[in-house]
TrEMBL record, chains A, B:
Residues 104-227 form the DUF2520 domain. It comes from the Bacteria. It comes from Polaribacter ponticola. It holds the Pfam family DUF2520. Gene3D superfamilies: NAD(P)-binding Rossmann-like Domain (3.40.50.720), ProC-like, C-terminal domain (1.10.1040.20). This is DUF2520 domain-containing protein.
């Protein structure tokens, strides 16, 4: 039996709490980060709070092994006295959408093998995909995630705008969006590329630019150039 | 029974031919675009060839009703004598990947209601999603598709590059990519946006820029600016 103390009441903390409740080998306690006067003992203390208060919250914890759940905060930014670690789940969490933890990559980091194995056991009690990821690697994963999640979502938003401006329902693009995202499970994205940029079809590119506003044109040109440069 | 003549032997033509073969109400014939000396009669003649030869191929056809399958060619670029139309399927076709036609949006255009209804019956014989789309709308759908398909795929490629450079397996990003693409089936992409750009978290943005090469930085900055401007 692993005793886990979860600090935080936000999005990630709530999803984690519900998952640990169902795990038989886990004894889960949860407290708010605003109430740190009497902190219960636990084998693992998970701080699931905003990045900018992780250092402060961690400095008040005297438990043995303290981890945070952030993609962009270093292990050494934890200010607790004893052992430190990271329990980062690489996924986008929405409060009202159920999470399938078996699909989520757990990016784990610890200062020694014993702690790492404990984190691994914890992750496998609710999930299936475990990766050993250093603070440096995690930082770059976080940037890569901005490209494939936030920036990709912005391209969906531009597609939506273009549809709206021409009285076309956005749903018409959804099967293409889905296929594009599934294709790279089988193909390297570089080899999956199609379209006017990679074909250097300047006639179609010019036609497209004529249909776009200034902001859309700027993005269209830069991404076309980057595709053509193979960057 | 609708008799369909399919001209072309490429990717789209091959997938279409196999689908029509299974449709009971369709009598399908297929010929190569290089062999137009003796063209069989048909209720609908579908030209599924490269954009730049559609005009030439169509000029040689004397059948009643001729359509093309292109996203970026106008109805009036067909040069056959009689009725014209468009039978555009909004999807990315790979030769060795099976296509689920029930998922594909059929974007149809014709010069009169009778022809349109014939195209609709044809589309529904192999698919389920039918849209009436003008040449002008189809042009803009094609641009939107470049954003959500080609450009999105390029962001996946950059994510892949960043992972490779840091010895992280790209598969770690696949669940996030999948969730990002599925989220917008329920949420407007504008409302689905998260991350440092929309939060105006300049500290994280600066950290990210320090990890990127020049080309990646340029794309990061422009997309961040566009997200922040709400464009």
């Amino acid at each position: 039996m692993i005793t886990v103390l979860l600090i935080g009441k936000g999005n990630v903390a709530t999803h984690l709490y519900n998952a640990f409740l169902k795990a038989e080998a886990i004894n889960i306690l949860q407290i708010s980060s605003r109430n740190l006067s009497k902190i219960p003992k636990a084998d693992i203390t998970i701080i699931a709070v905003s990045d900018d208060v992780i250092a402060e919250v961690s400095s008040k914890i005297k438990n043995n092994f303290v981890v945070h759940t952030s993609g962009s905060v270093r292990l050494n930014d934890l200010k607790n006295k004893y052992n430190k670690g990271v329990f980062y789940m690489l996924q986008t969490f929405s409060i009202d959408k159920e999470i399938d933890f078996s699909e989520i990559p757990f990016c784990l980091e610890a200062e020694n093998e014993k702690d790492y194995n404990l984190l691994k056991t914890l992750a496998l009690s609710i999930g299936q995909k475990v990766y050993s990821i250093s603070s440096k690697q995690r930082k770059t994963i976080h940037v890569a995630a901005v490209f494939v999640n936030n920036f990709t979502n912005h391209l969906y938003k531009i597609g939506n705008d273009i549809c709206k401006q021409n009285n076309v329902p956005f749903e018409i693009l959804l099967p293409l969006i889905k296929e594009t995202s599934l294709k790279i499970e089988q193909l390297d994205p570089k080899n999956a590329q199609t379209g006017p940029a990679i074909r250097k079809d300047q006639k179609t590119i010019n036609n497209h630019l004529n249909l776009l506003n200034d902001d859309q044109q700027e993005i269209y040109k830069i991404l076309t150039k980057s595709i053509q440069n193979g960057n």
